[in-house]
Amino acid sequence: MHSGEALPKVEPSTPMPQVIYEMSRKKLGMTTVLANGILQGMISDGDLRRLLERDGSHALEHTARSIMNPHPITIDANIFAATALAIMEDKKITSLIVTSSDGKAQGVVHLHDLWKTVLA
Question: Which of 53, 64, 75, 118 could form a disulfide with 79 if both were Cys (CB 3.0 to 4.6 A apart)?
Answer without folding.
Answer: 75
